[in-house]
Amino acid sequence: MFQTYEEALNWIHSRLRLGIKPGLTRMNMMMEKLNFPEKLIKTVHIGGTNGKGSTVTYLRCILESAGLNVGTFTSPYIEQFNERISVNGIPISDTEIKDLANKLYPIVEEMDQTEMGGPTEFEIITAMSLYYFAYVNKVDLVIYEVGLGGRFDSTNIISPLLSIITSIGLDHTAILGNTYAEIAFEKAGIIKKDTPVITGVKQREAEEVILKKAAEENAAVYLLSKHFMIENHQSILKGESFTFKTAAEKKEDMHISMMGVHQTENASLAIMAAILLKKEYPQLKEEMIRTGLVQAKWPGRFEIIAENPLIVLDGAHNEEGVQALTEELTKRFSTRKKTVLFAALSDKKTDKMIQKLDHIANKIVFVSFDYPRAASCYDLYKESTHPSKSYKEDWMKAIEEQVEMIKEEEMLVITGSLYFLSEVKAYWKQKNK
Description:
alpha/beta, Protein-Tyrosine Phosphatase, Chain A, 6-stranded mixed β-sheet, 15 helices, UDP-N-acetylmuramoyl-L-alanine:D-glutamate ligase, 17 strands
């Protein structure tokens, strides 16, 4: 058993060696051993390729504004591991992580001896969160973010009040499939019987898959741009403003603090969710939706961490994410020269991501970082055709060098893997204490 937080964390992380093992058999076994915590909590389930974390945050802040206590389960973390299990945006304590690990340890040890084998790191963390919200810190609602896919994701053990599927992109294709329809099939796995689903998918083939699955489950579907819409979108100095509209109502001058047209889409999914959740939580009023949207902030999403010199962090870790980033940079900072510093995971398709970054960068620097699946900076460098490209193993030194060189009319954009951004955030916080 674990005496310290560090021992517990080392044990949890040691399970990374098992990789990804899709399926719910191990989760079902853990739930039985823990006395079925998933049956004791009210939840909302959020899946999709991009926008999951932002949508979680918008909805959490809206619900908090209505006086509700809201748990969240998200991944990956940005500044500290404990963020993955939070209440009202506050990560659980080191002691609670240690206690939860001690609760799971004997169960995992027993499962390790079976023919099926023991659970992965993500399965253990999911089980910890379910036990925590059911028995340790009971809240009004928990928002669960899917880890990978949906159908066989460990979070799919829950029976939510409603499900949300954000956008769909060609990510994790080796596991989820090579087409939008195949990936949508995996994402649609979170749709439950008689449970409403809200979605922001744009591709016709993905939409058809979701509609088919919803019909099979008798689930009401709410499609962005069909059942609810965004109108009068405008980028403002610190965020975006827009009108949210359904057949029954219209909410004008909605404001969000996060930047990008894609963030208005994520926010609209959260607004639609709040409207549907009024049946369960009648205290949800329009002014609370407005307050929650403005308060919502999510680290690493077009986050300006310094203004002089101008430095932006953005977790654009797939082609669609990079597309959103480049569009926002072009729109907001068209006159500035841009240095892009990029790191990625080796299992990502980076060629098209780099192609898009090459197009908007005046200079591009590729770096490596300390993570088991991190791509080599030289391999990334070789994929670029930029005339002013370079690579460096030491990402901290690369940042320091680029910050020194930034002139007033220039900016530094640090982007790529969210795991990389997690390290950059910790480094920047320490550096600027």
